[in-house]
Specification:
This protein is of the alpha+beta class. Helix 1 runs antiparallel to helix 2 and helix 6 runs antiparallel to helix 7. Strands 1-2-3-5-4 form a five-stranded mixed beta sheet. The protein is about 60% helix and about 10% strand. The protein is rod-shaped and about 130 Å long. The chain is built from ten helices and five strands, in the order H-H-H-H-H-H-H-H-E-H-E-E-H-E-E.
């Protein structure tokens, strides 16, 4: 079954109808391009020129649906029109068909047609002049250029402008899409950072509150209850202070209010004292030195804080050892605590602590490991070890 041509556009139908009616009007009043007695006219009279006119009007219907087919048929119709008295409307419609073939045709045709019409224009100028040696012969090349090269060049210029506009629009859409992706990634990263900060700041205090409140409820001893309530109050106050600090950072709009400073390794002593007050036996062995990058100090502090929280919730009785060592390239954090294989923690947890510590190390392009390791000197032969290596060089800080 033969393939059907696409349905012509409405504007093309209007152009074809207008061209046909205009050509019929000129035909009716007897206005042609050439006189009937000119030697080139092989088919004299009024009726023969209607055939190329009708065919060219039909080609206008194909100007966008099948531009190459319309141009081929239109070229044959134009040649036929030159053998008659000719119609000005037929020539005008051919220029539009030529323009449309370049503008709407395939890219290969759009590149070739201007070159072909340009060569025809040159040939139409040089060859007649070389044969007849008359200045009037140059008008043939001018006519060929007006009918073919000019509309083809115009179509190519318009096509290039449209393609440039489409490319600019596509780049703008891609830029907007990339900006939106960057915004989503930035929001996601900020939410993750806020989640880590909130977890690390509050989990330690809330775990101590949960454990000591459980002890106060389970023991009927006024002294123990009073001591537990004191620890609960102390952790509540510290937790509220940390929450206010985070809320202050979130509400800071860049005005005169200065956000509170992030914790540093100078605060490890107070952090360990708080862990001891919560019932942990903690030994601190820290020699981090000076001039540490701020991101490294914050990450090390939070890793120690979360490790002490996990030791409070999961660890067995025994000594918790916090050790920080530094060399030329890295700060190493190691926190070990007794491992009793407890099935359930003494305080509920979300399981986000290890994830947060691993993320902090990864953001600095460091390494992090946590798990039970063998230790013959420990009760049960195992300890729980948290080990983080944080690079100090600026190139490694993300």
């Amino acid at each position: 079954m033969a393939a059907r041509l696409p349905r012509p556009r409405r504007f093309d139908c209007y152009a074809a109808a207008a061209g046909l009616l205009g050509g019929l009007l000129l035909w009716g009043i007897g206005l042609g391009v050439r006189p009937a007695d000119e030697p080139v006219v092989l088919f004299g009279g009024k009726w023969p020129l209607l055939v190329p006119l009708v065919v060219m009007a039909a080609c206008e219907l194909l100007r966008r649906s099948a531009p190459r087919t319309g141009l081929l048929i239109g070229t044959a119709a134009l040649i036929g029109d030159t053998l008659t008295q000719g119609s000005l409307v037929t020539v005008i419609m051919y220029t539009d068909v030529m323009y449309a073939a370049v503008l709407y045709g395939p890219p290969a045709s759009a590149r070739r047609i201007p070159w072909i019409t340009g060569l025809l224009t040159v040939a139409g100028t040089v060859v007649p002049f070389a044969l007849w040696r008359q200045p009037e012969a140059l008008l043939i090349g001018v006519a060929v250029g007006i009918v073919s090269f000019a509309p083809a060049s115009t179509g190519l210029i318009v096509r290039n402008h449209r393609e440039a506009a489409d490319a600019a629009l596509l780049r703008a859409e891609q830029t907007a899409l990339l900006a939106e992706m960057d915004r989503v990634q930035a929001v996601t990263a900020e939410r993750s950072r806020m989640a880590r900060e909130l977890h690390d700041m509050v989990a330690n205090h809330l775990s101590a509150i949960a454990i000591h409140s459980t002890a106060a409820l389970s023991l009927d001893d006024p002294a123990t209850t009073r001591q537990a309530l004191g620890v609960i109050r102390e952790n509540s106050v510290e937790g509220l202070a940390e929450m206010r600090r985070l809320i202050g950072i979130l509400r800071d709009d860049g005005g005169d209010t200065e956000p509170a400073a992030a914790p540093t390794l100078d605060g490890l002593g107070a952090l360990v004292d708080g862990a001891r007050a919560n019932g942990l036996d903690v030994t601190l062995d820290a020699a981090p030195g000076e001039n540490l990058p701020a991101p490294v100090e914050l990450a090390a502090y939070r890793i120690v804080q979360e490790s002490l929280t996990n030791a409070l919730k999961h660890g067995s009785p025994g000594t918790v050892l916090v050790r920080l060592t530094r060399d030329e390239t890295d700060l190493r954090v190691r926190v070990t605590s007794p491992y009793g294989g407890r099935d359930t923690p003494r305080a509920p947890g979300s399981g986000a602590g290890l994830v947060g510590m691993r993320e902090r190390a990864a953001l600095l392009r460091g390494s992090f490991e946590a798990g039970a390791v063998a230790d013959p000197g420990a009760p049960g032969g195992k300890i729980w070890a948290v080990c983080a290596v944080l690079p100090l060089t600026e190139g490694d800080l993300a």
